[in-house]
User: What shape does this take?
Amino acid sequence: MKAMTLTAYGDDATFEAADLPKPIATDGHVVVRIIATSINTVDTMIRSMGADLPLSPALPAVLGMDFAGVIEAVGDGVTAFSVGDEVYGCAGGVTDIQGALAEFIRADARLIAHKPKSISMREAAAMPLVGITAYEGLERAGIAAGQKVLVQGGAGGVGHLAVQLAKHFGAEVYGTGTGDKQIDVIKGYGATPIDFAYAIHTRIGSACVGAKIDGMRVPLWTRVKNGQSIEIITAQGQTPQATWLDIATTGKAKTAIRRSLRELDRARFVSLGRELARSAFEQMNKSATEKVLRTAARNLRLSSAEELLAQLGSAELTGQEVVQAVYPNLRPKPGEHVDRKRAVVGLEAGQSFDRSPCCQALPGERIVGITFRGQGVKIHTIDCERLSHYEDQPERWLDLRWHDGPHPAIYGATLDLTIGNGAGVLGRICTLIGQSSANIADLEFLDRKPDFYRLLIYVELRDIAHLHSLIPMLEAESEVAEISRYRNPDLFKAGTKDA
Assistant: This one.
């Protein structure tokens, strides 16, 4: 019979045609006439590594593990096969067993199977080793119906069979792939290709700005189904958003998102803190030099100036606290301000009050009070939506007003801003707020896009006139797309009961 033999091992080794004796059927074996064969990874390793691989045959060798063909002869003890049967298997090409790169092969009957009529000889010859690998991998993993299975490389040799087998076992199957051709292959097997996000590479997931499912643009939070093809759209400069934590389902994705957010937040807080420090020191006619910041950090028992700036930017420290850490005797000149405890007129003696967070009433606005047993009075603006909850309880309403004198800048209000994502934009906004004699007490990013940010800034103001002068000043900044006062009727004081 004709066979392709290997007379040397190595990356440059070549096969030579040779005439070899036709094998005969022995006990438990059959002789198969080869119709198709294939080359797998182990075949190439044997050719390249030779004696360094324990299963390599002695030279001259006939390689080839996988094959498909027709049975020519049956040995004693073989009952499952007959002459003429179409079979396929992985039964040669290692140790002292002749391989399939020949016209005939003697195969152990336990290592072959009847070829399904639905596939060709070529297709059957490509299946054995990768099929065995995929099946054993899933079996060892304890696959069961209803599980979620991710197959890395779902269009590869082992992967494309693992996808189909996992689907056969009743699992919800996901597969990774790259490019339209691979996606089409995976889609045809009923798995959802994750050609995106953190399953492939953290960089791809972090740069994700959108997705297409079966060619249709969809939001990132869209849940995918088995059999759909997914295309991920990325953009340079995109960064993970906090809302992605609610979208992601895998631990790997959530961990990567949290890590990126921490890094981004720290860098943002340090940058913001630097602007806040500069503004705070300039108000005292001082400079926020690196030496001054290091001194402040040391006096506040912080590890570094960067840590100080990060805490300042995240509102864990105030600008005044940082200034006083270096200049403890340097304080704003006291004015004839209305004491906060007597800022509201119309309360009974000993009656306490709080501003309700839903509307954040400022001095100068028309206000009413709602009484709460054991909790004092909650102050609302006259137009607060929350007041509708008490329309049928007039006995709880108090007619109040703010004291007419000047108030200190301690009354918080929240600004809703959409700003351009450009260098120094946030810093300029912080500077403007500082120049208006307002303080930034807190800052929260609601949405981050490659070109715009939406954020809430909690500023401490004197009164409504202070707010009305600050908003136009910020609105005039070229990178501010939108600005408004933020009110949320659902933000009612934690622990406050409507009774």
